Structures
1.
Amino acid sequence: MAVNFPSIDPAQLHPVAGVTLGWAEANIRKPNRKDVLVISVEEGATVAGVFTSNRFCAAPVTVCREHLARVREGGSGIRALVVNTGNANAGTGEPGLAVARETCAELARLAGIAPEQVLPFSTGVILEPLPIDRLKAGLPQALANRGPAHWYDAAQAIMTTDTLPKAASRQVTIDGHTVTLSGISKGAGMIKPNMATMLGFLAFDAAVAQPVLDALVKHAADRSFNCITIDGDTSTNDSFILIATGKSSLPAITSTESPAYAALRDAVTEMAQTLAQLIVRDGEGATKFITVQVEQGANVGECRQVAYAIGHSPLVKTAFYASDPNLGRILAAIGYAGIADLDVGKVEVYLDDVLVARAGGRNPDYREEDGQRVMKKSEIAVRVRLGRGDAQATIWTCDLSHDYVSINADYRS
Amino acid sequence: MAVNFPSIDPAQLHPVAGVTLGWAEANIRKPNRKDVLVISVEEGATVAGVFTSNRFCAAPVTVCREHLARVREGGSGIRALVVNTGNANAGTGEPGLAVARETCAELARLAGIAPEQVLPFSTGVILEPLPIDRLKAGLPQALANRGPAHWYDAAQAIMTTDTLPKAASRQVTIDGHTVTLSGISKGAGMIKPNMATMLGFLAFDAAVAQPVLDALVKHAADRSFNCITIDGDTSTNDSFILIATGKSSLPAITSTESPAYAALRDAVTEMAQTLAQLIVRDGEGATKFITVQVEQGANVGECRQVAYAIGHSPLVKTAFYASDPNLGRILAAIGYAGIADLDVGKVEVYLDDVLVARAGGRNPDYREEDGQRVMKKSEIAVRVRLGRGDAQATIWTCDLSHDYVSINADYRS
């Protein structure tokens, strides 16, 4: 029931020079499904990532942070990523950490690299031990079938409750040089700002210095994966990774001030937004794709507060599901978003182009049929003007349906 | 589908000397239902209230605050409360405020009191004009059928999506004098801390000075109505009112330091907790009543943060609905509750008496069947020990079911 999910043609996902992808059916939780992915990166690439803010972060997240820190301190570069689905290796304490390290060691042994050159990722059920023997047994298969054109298979290999694989690819010209970008993402529930049970991997063949890539990954995440919410739950495992292989003819980008950086930044951010929005479009039980845009705030923080209050409200979300213009629920959410000195008399609320509320109440010209017309659409924009300043923020979310409850009530069974 | 909702015998709801209650069928939104309630209070009573923190507070809330402020400045005491269901008179701007004042004026005219001696309350749909003519037309009927024994009818008259009327009553002996307390509440959705679409009215016949009653209403609300959540939405209309008629033989309570105050405070708080918990038991679509108790926090605020993160998580709530001990979702909620320096290695999570998680992971002695046994119950306690200090907080919530979605997708239709 994904919402206006674009058709993805595997043949249109460009290889990125310097990256190969291979998967295995390792039977981590269920048989006969791709559940292990290995992404190999040629020597000389730079890699950067942002991770969940959840204090109960998963063991692989801890290990990723350690290994990336080591690179920043001058250690050897990252050469491989390994992802398993079916088990999050989160809430697993010290034994979970040992298992994550063991995964890296085993892949390193098989690939002839050092353990700290491997980044591990897990997604799935929390609080259960990761079946490390099955994962290790699957690694040779994943390594054996690596290839540069496997982006679509890779997208399938990281799915959990996703109903569709999520991938995007494009080529851009920067300073006359072609740069190729391809990426995959996964996630459908437990999705909220500051990462969610979402994984995103985006590779491109430009060369980017480590500090610049560190800045770029944060810039892109803050405008993409950190702007989506399905249910307000921030996962333990969220990770978004950029891989810059440096194989294109574009000279290396060593400063965030260069025009080439700006061009690459915009291309990466736009693709990250696409990958993030694919997650919302395939949100658990989603029937509507909703953009919440808050304008005229005193600062971005309060705009995001209001946007998330609307985007998280079960009452607002069920009204969207019902196509019911019960728009007072949006006003209520704005009111409790936590802006203590909000002057409700200055707030305006639009549904697409329809001015619903102003001057603390319903717009006198508002007609129920206008609201009804917008609510019936599968893509809806809620626009709120706070009348306090020039800041703005946008998030993307979906409605709350019967299927959301069914999916999450049945997830483990 | 209310959860272990106690059978309420109308005959067991004691009259409170100095209070009469009358209702009308005023056809505010739907025909043939009690939708207007008038509570009359004899001269000499003190009245205090706490109200929603929502910035889009309803017009009647604004008027209540004004009228209570006037009393505190030495004006005449409150003599009547008027409640309508079917329309919240919220998000209605200046016209809504005029309508709320007109309601007070009309009731005052009919009852021979001043408009500022009336407190108005509304609950129902937001953003639609209150049909003031119907409300005014219903007032004579409500005044005509007032009586001291009408607490059960009064509880019925304030219901919206509630499936059952909510009332409680008891008598306590303080310093050898009998004090009688009776109260009603309503609310089923849009329920969150700092009040919700909930109304609570609690009257007793002790005499209490205004400043003491102001303190008491806050004390009781903070330990009852401000500790429940159904869906995390804070309503525009929430109000909790204490009425102290002063008709009992107990000498007036003029200090929060007196033993009589302590006894009354505990009786009022306990009854407020009962009335608040009735709201959760009748929560929209609720099938489980869940107590979330967070202990060993550095302060009460962080304990509440953690408790609400658990209580609001749709993933946790659907797991309870499914009786699925998918308890990693609780760990994830603790992790994203916002305690930046939380040491997850010190956190312990219990489900009733079952120790589920410790030392950052699953308790080695935990067995799935123990978790399953607790999850199948209709009353479940989640206990979290943070290992940071001595503070604690408790909230009450319910699960998230298919019926919640149905009720809120269909509310206006």
2.
Amino acid sequence: MPRTLVKDLAAHIGERVTVYGWINTARLQRKMQFIVLRDHTGMVQVTNKRTEPPSDVEEALESTSIESAVKISGTVLANPVVKLGGLELVPDSVEVVNAAVAPLPINEQTGIDQRLEWRFLDLRNPARHLIFDVQTTVEEAMREFAYGEGATELHTPKFMGTASESGAEVFKVKYFDRFAYLAQSPQLYKQMAVSGGIDKVFEIGPVFRAEPSFTSRHATEFISIDVELAWIDGVEDVMSFEERMLARVLAAVAEKHGDAIRELLGVEVVVPELPFPRIAMREAIELLTAQGWKPEKNKGDLDPEGERSLSALVRERHGREFVFITDFPASVRPFYHMRHADDPTLTHSFDLLWKGIEITTGAQREHRYDVLVKQAEEKGVDTGPLASYLTSFRYGTPPHGGLGAGLSRILMVMLGLDSIRESTFLFRGPTRLEP
Amino acid sequence: MPRTLVKDLAAHIGERVTVYGWINTARLQRKMQFIVLRDHTGMVQVTNKRTEPPSDVEEALESTSIESAVKISGTVLANPVVKLGGLELVPDSVEVVNAAVAPLPINEQTGIDQRLEWRFLDLRNPARHLIFDVQTTVEEAMREFAYGEGATELHTPKFMGTASESGAEVFKVKYFDRFAYLAQSPQLYKQMAVSGGIDKVFEIGPVFRAEPSFTSRHATEFISIDVELAWIDGVEDVMSFEERMLARVLAAVAEKHGDAIRELLGVEVVVPELPFPRIAMREAIELLTAQGWKPEKNKGDLDPEGERSLSALVRERHGREFVFITDFPASVRPFYHMRHADDPTLTHSFDLLWKGIEITTGAQREHRYDVLVKQAEEKGVDTGPLASYLTSFRYGTPPHGGLGAGLSRILMVMLGLDSIRESTFLFRGPTRLEP
């Protein structure tokens, strides 16, 4: 018999159906057996009355372990007493497709590290499963938006011939008789695509950072959302692209998963108003300093505590979850960020904070070869390994700008999760390469 | 003035507009200047009459090098004599945004290796640019199809803790105080997702193969399209998914780019009939042997020449571009392919050939732990590094199957290109890590 999804059962009351899924719980009483079957769309109660002698169904339900994969056929009945959708399945056939070993190695009380060891079992929890349903919707909405803006989907190489952007944090790979390096971001390549006449570049793909960092926001491998827009009039075009994209994403998530997110994760998805507030870094620091904040390092930048405080302040004063910080000092930005024409100590750049967490860095790029080389030299950057990148600016590169955002961070903030370990399918950190 | 795209100029006849783009060609005559400006949507002739003394526009057009980035404002006139869409732009302002160095390092006669050195300039050629417009449409259509089937978009890790699938061809990465390995395919991880209750897995992402191979079909890094479907009734479900997805893709490409592909690449995009023909490997070998084909190695498999011959035969006899080869011998398939219940020498597997090239490998997977371990041992696979993969089959893994396909190969075949070097943004091979 063809499969009926649990979410569709209400349309089959009085009919015989077959559901496929896992045994979520079993309550075996003296006269009755109550099983909850779970598939990726929901849960249904299976209610079986014991008989004398016991039926095959009774024996199968009695002996099958939790999390075994089963196909159960039976009749769908309306039963207002049942919590799961007011219906139950009265089984006439149970097929154990693949039995699970008992006992299970994790349960509701297991901590995150042990859960990650058993990630495939961990993901069977509907609240965890939901994260990846939401991820799918997030990416779908982002791409729909980007395609609508005329973007080209590009896949930039992850192998680089030189450790060009910042040697210190790059993974090194034995590559036949030489070495390759894993891309920390598609930065150089997406700019090369703009030089190649691709009008708007869009990529969602992995990047690699050899940082021995153990915070809730860092990973050695993560999925970066990258955008690069040609022929912009200024960095405002990039911020506008991003805020409209995120508004589209949040509208799609709220519509498709808003109820489930509220129920399973206790979080309200808010579709943001546009435009997001914009605060220049200088003003942000003044506001925070007035509150008593003292930056520890990186004069002219915010530390994570500063980011949290600024977001809290914006939320308090304006009721907004998002805020762009703009006009970062050149001293804390890479050489390729374009500087203000009237004040070369400032850049046409931004970060986007969401509920206290930085989720994006963006900027207009310097597209004039001479200026770019000068800025690299001023920063003490070794331009040797950058030769092919720099050369691409000598043949009519248009003005452009772009952004990079972390997918797992966006999901973490959106869904109120503790760590990107929760919003990554299989997390990779300095001490985690398994499973 | 806001930008008008070249493709939209016909709607602005008699109006003043500004176009942004590159100087494609310049024909400077005694009385007239004819410039062709190119953006990512097309080309337009800019026609300027010389004056005495010369205007600023005339001087700018005279001196600006080919491939410089410019903004040109002027009036759109209908002119049936002009080949480019029967219109021309009479300029009143030319802004050179970023001048190109002359002479250009590549031209129409440059060979592929040198073109790849200057890939960003190479991509300004509209025929090359078109490849990535098509790529965008291909991915969009694939995802629309996959989402419609209920698939979850997943990103599997590229860092693996062990070189599990096949040690020989895996790239090794220095990973803090140990080593990591780059994933050759998401195989193990997408199966783990199925064990985790993800009903249908979909991923488009990079994979890495340390093969010193220099054919037109191989790269050390390429984009793999991966699908894994839970609760299948058999491998036919996987083939059905793929053929319906490809039919959707080709319909979208034909509709959106069919004319441009015909004009720029001389190829006709054919939307295939469903279902594709299916030929069991045994029958394929009989057919080819009858034609005089002698397999060089891999008894029970086809070499590239065999694949070309079989495709030619199917095209000749049935007029079809695609053919599934099914039921490969277990001897030439990995241990995790499910075997026939009534003949363990055969697997429930397939390759898909398109115009003589293998673009996909797929199979139903063995989901029963005991059988899987037995098959691994029979093949002499070291099960130690596979421990966490194998363990995931002990907790109720449902029947499942999937496929892996190469994006660049699909584009190469679809667009009649000589090599995946042409259908990859920045190709990576054993001797190519730049640009």
3.
Amino acid sequence: MQNKIQGVYLVTDRPLCIHHRLEDVVRLSATGGVSLVQLREKEATSREFLELAIHLKKILSPFQVPLLINDRVDLCLASGADGVHLGQSDLPWYVARKLLGPKAIIGLSIETKEDWETLQKEDPSPNLDYLAVSPVFDTKTKTNTKTAWGLAGVRWLREKTNLPIVAIGGIHLDNAKDVIEAGANSLAVVSAICSANDPKEATIALKKLF
Amino acid sequence: MQNKIQGVYLVTDRPLCIHHRLEDVVRLSATGGVSLVQLREKEATSREFLELAIHLKKILSPFQVPLLINDRVDLCLASGADGVHLGQSDLPWYVARKLLGPKAIIGLSIETKEDWETLQKEDPSPNLDYLAVSPVFDTKTKTNTKTAWGLAGVRWLREKTNLPIVAIGGIHLDNAKDVIEAGANSLAVVSAICSANDPKEATIALKKLF
């Protein structure tokens, strides 16, 4: 599935879906050619999160767009989603790999250079599908993030790894091209699609940059 | 493991561990003869929750006291815990059973008579290890609970099911005997052990009532 880690990557945020319901944002984005969708829910109960995951999986299947679950390996298993996105305070990636098996898509956020060094010590060739440089730019969407990497950070990680790089944080049409040129294989966006008047057109516009 | 669902059942709550650290409360309670421990963490990250689960599992193994995880099936799988306790807004019990297999201990909170009716419709002989009557009495420990069942509620569920019944909510030494007489196989307590000056003695005192 490594070829799926390219292009436009949608990370969901229900409160930011101001013009359309989440499921419509996801459907429209898939119509516009999104490559991957990550369901992120920070307030939902496990039951609500699971039901939403099952619903989005049904929406995305006809488009063959993989669905990743933020953090929750159990909800990935229970919903039939394609994998998980892990932050540094989630389950260790090798534990998730063990529970999900070899076919699951597993991505890991790298928030600091220390995170990269830790990963190298754990495994110089980690069985991961991508690394997420997080955050590339400062963002209002997520407030618990570390110092922004900037374009120099994307270039730094690009020199270190052959794994696909997903860039996330403060990415929009005006700066997206620079992030790709710095070495990102995929651009993860939240508000640029979730809050768009036309999520399909917003996806198409971003996709054209690749 | 059905015989484990009897006696004193400790549900953890770190903020209520005022005299001892959580791990010491758990160790002392095991020394006092606790039958089962449920790790409940509402604020921890997945990583912290997992590390705590692995730590408590190590503490409890020599006592052969099972460790259950509240809600998180993935953390149960990853920590080697013995099962999960599920509330009505957690994963459906049959999904948890599928993910955890036949040997896991799975308990389900029944908060209303409607919850019982739903369970009966799902499966007249559900593959569960216990039902938790929640809450038996009003409690300050958990604020999102439904109307208290009272002793009449315990008697009502006792007539309906042959599954072990765990009573939870507002149980302390003064009312524990009544709850057992109403039909509870096990008494789940939080503050009565977590906040006790002597968690071992608090466990022994409750255990004597059986």
